[in-house]
Amino acid sequence: MKNLFLAVMFLLSAVSFSSAGEPTVEVATVATSVENLIPVGVSEKFSSSVGRLYCYSKILGGAGQNIKHLWYINGKKLGEATLSIKAGSYRTYSLVTILPGTKGIGRIDITTGDGKLLKSVEFLIE
Fold it and tell me: Can you tell me the distance from the alpha carbon of 126 to that of 118, in angstroms, rounded to the nearest whole number?
């Protein structure tokens, strides 16, 4: 019985450790909306009249840490959002306003709180 208890405690420790490790990005998409934590209007190309764009990400690990969404259009930083990871598997998003007539290549860098790049997502505004 004692061995079973120790085995269960070891497994619980392993699960806790993996969720508290460095975050990884399982999914990252650009969309025109997020409803009930589900991205809507996912694409790689958007009209310059889109109004707003959302970056949805599903993060594994890193509970209790922060990630950042860094938004760029044509290499110029458009915005930054710091997002808290509240669980070992966590869905979150950020958004930016796209001014009418904006055109070019967009990119969102998803980084750890201290700036380590986890993933980049590119999109086009036409």
Answer: 27
Q: What are the structural domains, with CATH classification, of the chain?
A: 2-125 (2.60.40.2550)
**Distance linking the first and last C-alpha atoms of the chain:** 65
pTM for the model: 0.83
CA 44 vs CA 28, 41, 76: distances in Å: 12, 10, 19
Q: Which amino acid is at 24?
A: T
Angle (CA) 66-70-72 rounded to 5° is 175
- pLDDT of 62 > 70? The answer is yes
In angstroms, rounded to a whole number, what is the distance separating the alpha carbons of residues 19 and 23?
8
